[in-house]
UniProtKB/TrEMBL annotation:
InterPro entries: Restrct_endonuc-II-like, YaeQ, YaeQ_sf. It comes from the Bacteria. This is Cellulose synthase.
């Protein structure tokens, strides 16, 4: 029998000063058995960076035809296809053909090598915007993961400050070189 996803709850007080957006978010995330905490945290950060557009978490790893998150218009068009990790060029081409914009939040081991190999092809796609998180900063945030998270998230000038209890972590959202 296959392992089931583990459910995490994130209650986030979001202050996004870059977009003048303030909200209390009550999110439920499913951590797939093959998914890392790092990936789950990047999904959560991607949600926070796109909260003004009301993103929706999709089935993630269990549904390869959909992005991690997307923002849709009232008529069902995909306005923003949001990928997490190191997607293939073919996947980004598909995303570009189905949406108005594509946003990638990259992270993880081998990211430098992946970007070096994919940079020219991805840079040729005008709809694709690439971001990444530094591994050390991301690991500090992973340390704050709990089954029921109470986070205060502040976004200011592409810096994210996450507070949980007595701990505060800062993470930079960086643009791919």
């Amino acid at each position: 029998m296959a392992e089931k996803a583990t459910i995490y709850k994130a209650n986030i007080t979001l202050s996004d000063t870059d977009r003048h957006y303030y909200d209390d978010l009550n999110l439920t995330l499913a951590l797939h058995p093959s998914e890392t905490f790092e990936r789950m945290v990047v999904r959560l950060l991607a949600f926070c960076f796109n909260a003004t557009a009301r993103p929706v978490f999709n089935k993630g790893l269990s549904s390869p035809e959909e992005p991690e998150l997307w923002c849709k218009s009232d008529d069902g068009r995909i306005l923003n296809w949001i990928e997490v990790g190191q997607p293939s060029v073919d996947r980004l081409k598909k995303a570009s053909s189905q949406s108005v914009a594509v946003e990638v939040f990259a992270y993880g081991r081998g990211m430098d090598i992946w970007w070096q190999q994919q940079r020219d092809a991805i840079s040729a796609m005008p709809k694709v915007t690439m971001h990444y998180f530094a591994a050390e900063e991301l690991q500090a945030l992973v340390a704050l993961v709990e089954k029921n998270m109470q986070w205060a998230v502040t976004i200011s000038e592409s810096l994210v400050y996450v507070s949980s209890g007595d701990a505060t972590v800062s993470i930079s959202l960086l643009e791919m070189p």
